[in-house]
């Protein structure tokens, strides 16, 4: 009989990949929930003078394909999170960036409302659950006008085929 604490290497790798995908989805949901593009944090960091994850690296992390993240990445995520929680935008001359930041919410959970580098790392490793608020990717919304336009296009294409 196999010990319940024994796993194979393949099972370990599978868990690791699953946890990394969940971590990436969480960051994607956090970014989208805050109404940001991939470039928002980088633009903010550049203007305010702090170091942030590059948008290319963020994209790879969000896809769950980043591999081993360096410690620095977790500290950079914390710096963004800390600034959001403190409403500390820094010297941001572009009012459009500041407007995108004002409604932002920090990433955290009930036991730690503002995650630091340790919490980000623990989640990345699968040692801490993704907060419920960031688990599911919300379906994209389409306003009524756009929905009517898309429906009309679809009907037109369907008629041309039939």
TrEMBL record:
It comes from the Bacteria. This is XRE family transcriptional regulator. It comes from Aphanocapsa feldmannii 277cV.
């Amino acid at each position: 009989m196999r010990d319940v604490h024994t796993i194979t290497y393949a099972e370990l790798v599978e868990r690791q990949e699953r946890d990394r995908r969940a971590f990436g989805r969480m960051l994607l949901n956090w970014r989208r929930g805050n109404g940001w593009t991939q470039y928002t944090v980088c633009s903010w960091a550049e203007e305010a003078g702090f170091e942030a994850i590059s948008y290319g690296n963020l994209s790879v992390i969000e896809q769950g394909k980043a591999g081993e993240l360096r410690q620095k990445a977790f500290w950079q995520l914390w710096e963004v999170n800390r600034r959001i929680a403190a409403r500390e935008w820094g010297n941001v001359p572009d009012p459009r960036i500041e407007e995108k930041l004002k409604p932002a919410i920090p990433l955290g959970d009930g036991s730690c409302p503002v995650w630091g580098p340790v919490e980000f790392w623990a989640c990345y490793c699968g040692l801490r659950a993704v907060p419920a608020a960031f688990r599911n990717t919300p379906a994209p919304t389409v306003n009524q006008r756009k929905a009517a336009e898309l429906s009309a296009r679809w009907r037109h294409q369907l008629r041309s085929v039939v």
